[in-house]
Amino acid sequence: MATVITPKPENSTVVDNQIKTSQKKYKMITENVNVYYGNYLAVKNISIKFPEKSVTALIGPSGCGKTTFLRCLNRMHDMTKSARVEGKVMIDDIDLYDKSIDPIYHRRKVGMVFQKPNPFPTMSIYDNVIAGVRLNGVRDKKILDEIVEDSLKMAYLWDEVKDELKKPAIELSGGQQQRLCIARALAIQPEVLLMDEPASALDPIATQKIEETITELKKDFCIIIITHNMQQAVRVSDYTGFMYLGDLIEFRETKKLFTDPKNELTAKYVQGHFG
Amino acid sequence: MLKRDFSKSRGRGPLSDKIFKIAATVAGAYVLVVVLLMVVQLGWESGPIWQEEGLGFIWGTDWNAVDGRESFGAFPYIIGTLVTAAIAMSIGVPLSIGIAMFVLTAPKRIGDPLGYLVELLAAVPSVVFGLWGLLVFRIYFKDLIEQPLHTAFGDSIFLFSGSPFGLDVLSASIILAIMIIPTISAVSRDVMLAVPQQQKEAAYMLGSTTWEMFRLAVFPYSKAGLIGASILGLGRAIGETMAVTMMIGNATGLAAIPQSLFSTSATMPSIIANEFIEASPVSLHMPALLGVALVLLLVSMSINVVAHFLVIRMLKIKEGAINN
Amino acid sequence: MSNIIQNKQEKRAEYRAMFRSNVKNRLLVDKIMMGVVFACVLIAITPLLWILGTLFYGGAEALSWEFLTGEPGAIGEGIPPAIGPAIQGTLIIIGLSSIVGIPIGVMSGIYLAEFGGNWFSKQIRFFTDVFMEFPSIVLGVFAFLLIVLFLGHFSVWAGAFALSLIMFPIIARATEESLKMVPWSIREAGAALGLRKWIVTLRIVLPAAKNGIITGILLSVSRVGGETAPLIMTILGSSQFFSGFDSPMDALPLRIWRFSLQPYDEARLAGWGAALVLVITILAIHIGVRYWFIHKRKKTDMIPRLSKIGV
Known about the structure:
The complex is a heterotrimer.
Chain A: E1 2-5, E2 16-19, E3 26-37, E4 40-51, E5 55-59, H1 66-72, E6 83-91, E7 94-95, H2 103-107, E8 110-113, H3 125-135, H4 141-154, H5 158-161, H6 174-187, E9 192-196, H7 204-217, E10 222-226, H8 230-236, E11 239-244, E12 247-253, H9 254-259, H10 264-270
Parallel strand pairs in A: 5-10, 5-11, 8-9, 9-10
Antiparallel strand pairs in A: 1-2, 3-4, 3-6, 6-7, 11-12
Chain B: H1 15-45, H2 47-53, H3 56-59, E1 63-64, E2 71-72, H4 75-105, H5 108-120, H6 126-153, H7 169-193, H8 197-205, H9 210-239, H10 242-247, H11 268-275, H12 285-323
Antiparallel strand pairs in B: 1-2
Chain C: H1 2-20, H2 23-59, H3 65-69, H4 84-114, H5 119-132, H6 136-151, H7 156-181, H8 184-192, H9 197-208, H10 210-225, H11 229-232, H12 252-261, H13 265-296, H14 302-308
Helix pairs in contact in C: 2-13, 4-7, 4-10, 4-12, 5-7, 6-7, 7-10, 8-9, 10-13, 12-13
């Protein structure tokens, strides 16, 4: 049996949970992650163990630090000069923030899909998918073709674009572009996939497709997804973490968190008392 | 917030506001009047040379002011201008983009002061560049670079033939390159800053290094704007007068067409600067110089119009992205 | 089914091994490029420091009261010819061109900011930007044709007019940008009080924008003080102090040019001295303007806006 322990935030009751994970291992483990913007502490002491081959949803009101926390998991904050990250983020026993390892290779292990689809506008569909792979020096056309087909199939986009791979990526619809971004993230063979409200900019049909994709992908990947849509979290995720003002309030199996929340704050949020 | 247009006053607005609007509009239109007047006057006063030589003035290579055998052609100076500008661009553009990249990626404590120093280059007057070039830079440049190049390659590569004296196409172009760097690098930096953050994040997410992020996300996106920035620099290079006049050696006519990097030459601005005072208005000499000025003006205007379109389009994309 | 999964996982492991192998190269390339980029900055800054160094080292010894206030006269032995008329001429010509250029520039900026938004003002803004890039020698030729040829002699007015043509577009755009930064609510407040638009603009909005406008004016003055080409065929240059608007006059940049053409050591020394005076003044204005902004009003981002319009 595996345990996830959440520290006590000042103004919420104790949340102590246990997750039956049986044979599942943990793909990603964070320990005491704190994020400072200048002097402001935006993410407070979060320790979570994300199981492999599952979907974990992070929910919470705007400004609670979900995106800030998510961005720690692939060292996105390196881009922001005023941000400072403390703590450990481990993938398979390697700490991403360990100063002695080079971040380039390890950052590749965590792929990310953003809120608004952002394919490279000057490149074709094919080139977009393969962009990260090319960076890594792969030139063999056979291998590239293989990876493109593989990634687009996993993203449920292959059938729609397989005859038009050279088309510019921005000619795709919003939903297709987002699946293209998923394919692009998958092409670099990540071990964890981060998704920051991936369907919020899309229409309902595209959203449904994305959710189907996620449900299939979780058979192979550890997926962590931020969503504002609680029904989506229920549909798609196995575990859910509720965050509020930078703290992790509760982290449990999704069904349990929504039907029987242990923390009062969680209950209030889940019932829609604040948003 | 509603923007109320109260330039249309309700009912009868008193005269004072009307006068104000007219005065402001006149002031605004002043630039249009000046541009029009300039083109018309240059065209008119240079009339005699166009009558005499027709459009052949543009291809002509004579430059003879002797009474009775007057003949003028602007071609050598057009070539001189283009050659110096081209060399200046080939040196200045890569340096400028590199500088812009540095300012964008270096920590603020280092990037900002160094970036400011580069901007200060623009504050140094052209004539001071010329003075320094003429009295100081030329000596080192001739001894350390031009002479060795000539000795080593003078016989084999035509570019390095001709004994160098330090006042020639190459040295003038180098000074020109230094002078256009502040312009190109400042605009390039703005253009590259306008690349949406999400693009850079996408590249970063794929595990790219800083340089790779530029290659993947910044350069392809800002290509048009960077070209626009370079063309703005080209416009400056073409119109630059004093430093070039003092560094280019001042040949005239056929001899001004450069045979090698070490040839003396002249540009459109430099020939005007050198000869305008001496030219008598009753001969063809002054109309010839005015003809050169007209060509210079038209070339410069066209280049700057193109550059502005490219840059403005790029910056509008950024504003559009913010508003979305 | 599990066979397929096994193959997939093996494939993935294969790819990952492939990726590992060139990370070191990529990091090396990255380091090299960052070094190249830094070298670019050093290459660009070197001439600036070299020039400043040469000016101080070569020009300082020329400086003296007589140098700054006397007439050049004949080339004396060991004594650099003085630049009194040149300094006086520069001050006069800047003053005159400001008298012409500032009102037009400010009013033009007011037009663009307060009466803008229509097609006509878009054209004006466009042409103002394009006009800013006109070669200054062509502006001098224009002033020559318009005034010198018309009057039949060289004229200080012609030089002032030519320089004003350089000044007014810079001031116009600086004014426009500054006015645009004044919040709309101020104009509404004025209108709500029943004030005429011209009063609101000139008495309320303009003073609120004065920092940016003064910056634009100062920067255009420093730019124009160093201009040589437009003065060549308008005021010609002279060895004497100002002697009337209808005679040639000297100016610092012109004098520097003349010195550079004379092969005597004294003339060279005088050239460095004059250049030193000119550059110190220009840099003082530039750095002073920036210091004033950074330390007095941190809120504004006028400097980047101004650099965008090419000052």
